[in-house]
Amino acid sequence: MDEQKDKVRAEGNTILKGKGKPGRVDGKNSNYSSGGAFIYKKVKYEIESVLLENRDKGATKDKKVGNETQEKRTTVVRGFFSDLFKLGYKIESVHSLKEKHLLVVFHYLEEMGQSPSTIQNKISIMRLFCEWIGKNGMVRDSSRYVKDKSSVRRSTVVKEDKSWDGNGVSVRSKIDEVAEEDSRIALRLELCLAFGLRVREAMLLRPGLATEGNFKGACVHVRDGTKGGRSRLVPIENEVQLDVLTRAIAAADKTSGFLVSAGKDEEARLQHFYYVVRKCGLSFADSGVTAHGLRHQYMHESFKRLLGIEPPVRGGDLSVLDRDELHLATQKLMERAGHSRVAIGTAYYGSRRAVKIQAAS
């Protein structure tokens, strides 16, 4: 068994030098991707049956999940069992799964350099899967399954400014640079900043339809590509937003309504989007920011418009604000961003602790 594990680790180190799905660890990329190993037919059948039976069930009984979450779970569970078999633990049934199997797989993924957030996400999904197969409570705290316990103690409070402005990247100059490669991708970036859109939401937005009917002139209705399938309304509050929206409507395909660019399908267009933005230096490695940083910038600017001070991650002091006023403003911002929990706001603009950290440094 030890020889088998050593062989697999050696293969994993080779994979790290090739292509794969990256995960960031301390600013570096890990290219190890789970999957591809032979799994017994019976085990495969059981995996698919359990996933199908529970495909839209949330972690809580009263909530259903969207297609994106379902696909993520499927990928993680299949990948987990693939890694388990690759490491020589060829169980006869998913019901034979034990805690030692979780330990060996997650230790292996840690050695392969997968990021703490990736590993913790996989642990959470396997915890849910184990509940589905009647093994409630078998998967304990995430720190039990990794050697570096601190790596999975995650905080949703952002400690660094992820916006373009906050990292010295000129929005106008960089978008102009992207426009030279693909004008429609540049427009999508402008939409991300103007309305706080995620990249996928900007890719699937049909600008004309998003402002039709009761929303015309007041809001943009974000429906497609949202997390969990939650649609939302983002208010049109200034001339910059109106200008971006007007140009996006004019540039959209007259038949489909989309800002069509290279690529035959959604996945190909998404790959083309990331190819272009990375070519223009929009990556953590090259400039310290990604396209998602524009969503953070929208949240920072909206925070200041609503409350009159900079967000904590930019040095703003929340102690000068009335607690109820802060709560109501945060609630508005989270609704615009498509989140159901007010607490998620700290992932964009920080907390009182962020100010203390800045002062200490």
Task: Walk me through what this model shows.
It is a single chain. Helix 12 runs antiparallel to helix 13. It is globular and about 65 Å long. The strands form two sheets. The chain has a two-stranded antiparallel sheet with strand order 1-2. Strand 1 and strand 2 form a beta hairpin. The chain has two domains: 151 residues, no CATH class; 207 residues, Intergrase catalytic core (hpI Integrase, Chain A, Orthogonal Bundle), CATH 1.10.443.10. By secondary structure, the chain is mainly alpha-helical. The N and C termini lie far apart (49 Å).
- Class by SSE composition: mainly alpha
The number of helical runs is: 15
The stretches of 5 or more residues where confidence is low (pLDDT under 50) are 7-29, 353-361
**Which fold does the CATH topology of the largest domain refer to?**
hpI Integrase, Chain A
What order do the SSEs take from the amino end to the carboxyl end, as H and E?
HEEHHHHHHHHEEHHHHHH
| Strand order of the biggest β-sheet | 1-2
Please tell me the total number of domains: 2
Helix percentage: 40-55%
In the CATH scheme, the class of the largest domain would be: Mainly Alpha
So, CATH architecture of the largest domain?
Answer: Orthogonal Bundle
The N- to C-terminal Cα distance equals 49 Å
Shape: globular
- Could you tell me the strand content as a percent range? under 5%
Largest sheet: 2 strands, antiparallel
- Rounded to an integer in angstroms, the radius of gyration calculated over CA atoms is 22 Å
Mean pLDDT: 83
Count of extended strands: 4
